[in-house]
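Exercise (ungraded).
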Amino acid sequence: MKILAFAEQRNNKFKKSSFEVVRTARTIADQTDGEVIALVIGDQVQTIASELGGYGAQRVLAVQQPKLEKYSSTAYSKIIAEVLKKEQGSVVLLSATAMGKDCAPRVAVKLDAGMGSDCIVLKVEGENIIATRPVYGGKALADIKINSAVKVFTLRPNVFPAGISSGTAVRVEVVDIPLIDSDFTSLAVETIQASGKLDVAEADIIVSGGRGLKAAENFKMIEDLAGAIGGAVGASRAVVDAGWRPHSEQVGQTGKTVSPSLYVAVAISGAIQHLAGMSSSKYIVAINKDKDAPIFQTADYGIIADAFEIVPALTQEIKKLLGK
Amino acid sequence: MKLAVCINHVPDTAAKITIAADGKNIDKTGITFVLNPYDEIAVEECLRLKEKNSGEVIAISLGGDAHKETLRKALAMGVDKAVLLKDDSPRDSFSVSRALADYLKEISPDAIFFGKQSVDSDDAAVGTMVAEMLGLPSVSVAVRLEIANGTAIAEREIEGGKEKVQATLPAVITAQKGLNEPRYPSLKGIMAAKSKPIEEKVPAATQPKIEVIALRKPPSKSAGKIVGTDSSAVSELVRLLHEEAKVI
Ligand SMILES: Cc1cc2nc3c(=O)[nH]c(=O)nc-3n(C[C@H](O)[C@H](O)[C@H](O)COP(=O)(O)OP(=O)(O)OC[C@H]3O[C@@H](n4cnc5c(N)ncnc54)[C@H](O)[C@@H]3O)c2cc1C
């Protein structure tokens, strides 16, 4: 299969999930005697693009111009679809990030392709790919097959391994896709960064707090633990609804879906809608004073005790271990 | 302003999901279906825009007769008109979008709203697919919206922040939690909705591009290990995370 891997960048930096997409394309190509073409879109992205060779791209294409510096749903999707047609590829892979999820549906329509979103497994079966994706907030898994000639998949971040770069740099081909003003009818005009904080959707470790923390100021303890362990702060909906934390930190069915290596749930009961957002975490730790809290059913390790006692002690112990 | 909002009828988020005997669908017995929570936000946004700018709000749902219940909820909240695109054949996001796009093209609204995702298939695709089919700009996952002088300026959530996106009308917006706080239907609204007509249309059949081979429960995780019941457990927890799980 000839696979086009869209490697998302912002501010001329790749996300880890971009490497995951290229590596996954490589894995599929290896099993199908295929080829991986990585595509980077932006302004002056040529210099960073060559890095994608290290993750298994045989060819790396850059489509660049100043107007592409900021994301445009309409323009980016046009470029991806045009490149796929030109290269006569059969599969497009994107990451299920804010950008990927916004772009992929347009790409699918342009290519008359079926789309599998937020996949957690891609398995080659003969001439096709079987994708597994969580549905009903992760309460079920669907194994799906796409029957159109071209297939589009978005991959849940943090699930597919990116591996380590082999260091192979590939010569970047700058490709010209002519764009006109009407290709930019939806355009990001400004990026508002949240004070350089690590986003829960991208963090490898998350420490989340729930209603049991009783007040906004008690999140200091969660921030300290997250700081010590190098993670992001997350929250349950109860906490967001109370206005203690911003919605951008909410984990769950109506918040973010996360798959970190480690998820620490502090004073969170483990409601089904919360589990929907974090049950695919690799390791889950629960700290709750109620031994019957449902979170213990999902947790790998639990401590049944008062969070106000455990969390500061845990922060100290981790600092000790990490020599901080 | 003519505003359209596409809404779905989905299992309540608290519903326990079991797999039907065919191994491809969910067993619907005993499940309460509700207006998709994100679509509720989309309906609310339309009502607020109408209150500000006058105009009409049309709610559209594709599905079987059961979807009328959800359309009635939208009517009770205050939408002016409800349309059922009656079809309960299996569809994927692409074929759902096609049917909605065909109808929307007929009524050509100034803005079309969706929830950012439907909590059944969790595809997060239909709004943007419809935009592409109609050749319209779109903003997905909007948490703030302002419409003025034929332009929509919206903020959407991205990793680590927000992105301000500009789109010329007519445009498609998909709603994320935070955009507004949906109202509860008033008793008067609920009563009035009972007698309002629901227009029915039959969309063209479209072959889905996705085939569900199997629907299954995620492998159940056995309950983990309780490391302890007081702070003396902390050092053991750190050891387990470091040596057994190797995550720190
Ligand atoms: C449509 C819909 C969508 C939803 N989406 C989401 C979502 O995206 N994310 C989400 O999180 N929820 C969501 N919910 C809400 C969800 O059902 C729960 O209400 C919510 O997750 C509860 O948050 P919590 O665990 O913080 O609070 P609670 O359920 O109140 O739990 C607090 C916990 O803290 C423990 N506790 C109290 N004091 C201490 C202490 N001193 N030390 C240790 N433990 C203590 C208690 O034992 C309890 O288990 C949704 C609900 C609906 C209906």
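Further reading is listed at the end of the chapter. For now, observe: Helices of chain B lie at 37-53, 67-77, 93-107, 126-134, 187-195, 234-244. Chain B has a mean pLDDT of 96.
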